[in-house]
Amino acid sequence: MLQRTSPHWRSGHHGDRPRVLVEDPHGALRDADFSAFLNAGFEVALCTGPDSESECPLVASGECGLVDAADVVLFGLGTTDERTRSILRSLRQRFPETPVVVEVPRTGNPAGGPAEAELPDNCVALAFPASVEGQMRALWDAVIAARRRRARPQRRRGRPGEVA
Fold first, then answer.
1. DSSP codes joined into one string, 74-134
2. What angle do CA 52, 69, 31 make, to 5 degrees?
3. Rounded distance, CA 38 to CA 36, Å?
4. pLDDT, tens digit, for every residue of 74-93?
5. Which residue has the higher pLDDT, 144 or 162?
6. What is the sign of the dihedral through the CA atoms of 150, 41, 78 and 56?
7. Using one digit for the tens of pLDDT, what is the confidence trace for 31-42?
8. Which of 128, 129, 125 is CA-nearest to residue 142?
9. Which carries the bigger pLDDT value, residue 153 or residue 114?
10. Terminus-to-terminus CA distance in the chain, angstroms?
11. Domain coordinates of the chain in residue numbers?
12. pTM (2 d.p.)
């Protein structure tokens, strides 16, 4: 499995730029500069997923430093293969608060939207192929929604006038 951190993903630094982990098996991305993500305000890292000789560390041990540091995941490994579905399930179980945008093929849906796919809870389907603008909008929407969820104060139940 190839994992690459861009020079813009500064270890230990977590500023205003959200971190997006792109999970995609396409070899061409290994040399990509990800300027569209950088220009849209993201720091970016790449994981090409498991190969025939290795298993995803998230599935094998429940640990993945890239996901641990990510604010959002763009999951492009596919949902038709059991190996990649197990990665997606592990991702949702281990990191339930991290938004995951899942690329779902447009084919098979006459309305042009995402084909039916069984996605775990708290995943956002992104009809793919999608424009770069569509990808960035989906990622930012997911980040903003997650920030709003975290900012909402938890209501404590009690009697009126009772101080918690």
1. EE-S-SSSHHHHHHHHHHHHH-TTS-EEEEEE-TT-TTSSPPP----TTEEEEEES--HHH
2. 50
3. 5
4. 999 988 888 888 999 999 99
5. 144
6. negative
7. 677 888 888 999
8. 125
9. 153
10. 49
11. 3-151
12. 0.80
- Owner of token pair 């069984």: 118
User: In which residue are the tokens 């009772």 written?
Assistant: 162
Sheet order of strands, 43-47 included:
3-5, 43-47, 19-23, 72-75, 100-105, 123-128
> Do the beta carbons of residue 35 and residue 81 sit within 8 Å?
no
Identify the DSSP state of 154.
Answer: P
Q: What angle do CA 138, 126, 154 make, to 5 degrees?
A: 55
* Domain 3-151 grouped into CATH 3.40.50.720: no
- For residue 70, give the 3-state DSSP assignment: coil
Q: How confident is the model at residue 28 (pLDDT cuts 50, 70, 90)?
A: low
pLDDT per residue over 103-140, tens digit each?
988 775 555 444 445 788 778 899 888 888 999 999 99
